[in-house]
Design a protein that fits this description.
The protein is mainly α. It contains 9 helices and no strands. The longest helix has 26 residues. The radius of gyration is 19 Å and the shape is globular.
């Protein structure tokens, strides 16, 4: 019996996820430049030809991974902005960000590393800039939450909030098993949602 279009799409998505997971693991372990398409195909247990059916090369694969990551972060903010009160919005941002990092600490480390590429790295700097630009856009949206809260200096408060949240995210990504996740979430929510 032939597969349905839905079944074909499910298989396609599962293959893409497996390729991206293999690429992420190798990029983290060996570095982007030291990882070849052959390495990724072998690690994902696919033929190189099959991988090329999905991506023209390693850079297209990285590009799609970055776009998806930006989409994930934007989704956390979108979900937050769908809520009514600033307190609910901040709580949603904290929970979404910390839960995401806790589930996938290596992903956060990878994108943080990508964001800090030197300007001279012409291959990777464009992806670094995409992430930084999206973070700046999301920061502006976050400032609006603090404006709605009546903060006298919403940008400064938002910057402080981002710094605390990013610090917690970095610590969780670096030492995933050593932090009381729920307690940290409650503490940051309590501090910023007074």
């Amino acid at each position: 019996m032939p597969r349905t279009p839905e079944e074909n799409e499910r298989i396609r998505q599962a293959t893409i996820e497996k390729i991206r997971a293999a690429a992420m693991e190798l990029f983290m372990k060996q570095g982007y430049y030291a990882t070849s398409i052959s390495d990724i195909a072998k690690h994902a247990r696919f033929s190189k030809g099959l991988l090329y059916n999905y991506y023209k090369g390693k850079e297209e694969l990285l590009s799609e991974m970055v776009k998806d990551r930006i989409g994930e972060v934007a989704e956390v903010m979108s979900e937050a902005f769908s809520l009514e009160t600033p307190k609910e919005q901040l709580t949603s941002i904290v929970n979404g960000a910390i839960d995401n990092i806790h589930k996938n600490p290596e992903v956060h480390r990878f994108y943080l590393h990508l964001q800090t590429q030197p300007e001279a790295d012409v291959d990777l700097i464009k992806y670094s800039r995409l992430i930084i630009e999206e973070n700046a856009r999301l920061f502006e949206l976050q400032c609006k939450i603090f404006e709605r809260m009546g903060e006298s200096e919403p940008r400064r408060r938002s910057l402080y909030f981002s710094s605390v949240l990013q610090g917690i995210m970095l610590m969780i990504a670096t030492y995933p098993q050593k932090f009381p996740i729920e307690e940290l979430k409650q503490q940051i929510i309590k501090e910023f949602c007074k």
